[in-house]
Amino acid sequence: MNNKLNVSIAVFRIRHYSAFHEFAAHVEGFVAEAANAGSQAVLLPEFLPMGLLWTDADAANVDNAGVAAFYRKVLTPLFDEFKALMSALAGQYDIHIVGATYWHEEQGVGVNSAFVFAPDGTELRQDKLHMTRGEKAIRTTPGDSLLAFEIDGVKCGLLVCYDVQFPELTQYLAAQGIEVLFVPSLTDQRGTWRVWHSAHARALENQMFVCVSTLVGNLGIPRDYPVSCSGQAFVACPIDNRFKIEDGTLARSDFADEGLLHASLDLETLRMSREKGEVRQLTDRRPELYRKLFATL
């Protein structure tokens, strides 16, 4: 059982790529920096390849009415190439690539899928479970399963953006024994605060680390209602006498543009917090009471 997990968490700026190789070079820069920093995992944001929409000549003319069809036309054919790239980078740089969600259509259904690409070629997939209004507008279908996985012996979970706002999911993962939750995100300025407060709440309630990566910038698509997103990379942690961090923020990015936040997650302190902290939310829960209360509704 490892006592530390070194992670790099991205703030990734949207670029208008003219070809797939430009996107590949952009991502590789992040992965290489994370590996050079000694990280075992790099967290990349939701809708990571959104800028690939600009590889299509019609991108500037797409309006809100046609954006769902446009996503299907451009992104779905590149899905396998995307997965091959991410798997190759994980192997080349000996690092786990986490998050990096990709919107695609399969068997007639639109899906927003996050991933874990391991250095040994293993690929895990976690589909987003709760759809925002924007995702419903492009006819995205929610997933119906939730996985826990390990990175170098550390039990982890993965929730996509909006999913972190539903505490039941993190409680389920905590029951599976996870200690680190990864959250790739894309949201607007108001939404960044929803993600911020939700991530901190999940870290507090479940006595775990919650790492959040975000996409930033203006996509320019659709032309009449362009996607614009903001935020920062951060790690939320428990608030107690073991961590001695009063606001529950272990680390946060302070750079103005894109970049990586590097953090070392002290799992020995986390385990001590769970066992001997001044508050012990995991052991003090009363699930039988909660079931009894809901049964009266």
**Helicity level:** 25-40%
Low-confidence stretches: none
Write the CATH homologous superfamily: Carbon-nitrogen hydrolase
How are helices and strands ordered from N to C? Answer: EHEHHEEEHEEHEHEEEEEHHH
CATH class: Alpha Beta
Biggest beta sheet summary: 13 strands, mixed
Reported CATH architecture: 4-Layer Sandwich
Based on secondary structure, the structural category is: alpha/beta
Q: Which strand-content bin applies to the residues?
A: 25-35%
CATH topology: Nitrilase/N-carbamoyl-D-aminoacid amidohydrolase
Number of helices: 9
Distance between the termini: 43 Å
Mean pLDDT: 96
- Principal-axes shape call: globular
Radius of gyration: 19 Å
Number of strands: 13
Q: How many structural units, i.e. domains?
A: 1
Architecture overview:
- It is a single chain.
- The protein has 297 residues and is α/β, with parallel strands linked by helices.
- It has helices spanning 20-36, 67-75, 79-93, 133-137, 167-175, 189-206, 267-276, 281-284, 287-295; strands at 4-13, 41-44, 96-106, 109-117, 123-127, 148-151, 154-158, 180-185, 209-218, 228-229, 234-236, 249-252, 259-266.
- It is built from nine helices and 13 strands.
- This is CN hydrolase domain-containing protein.
- Residues 5-267 form the CN hydrolase domain.
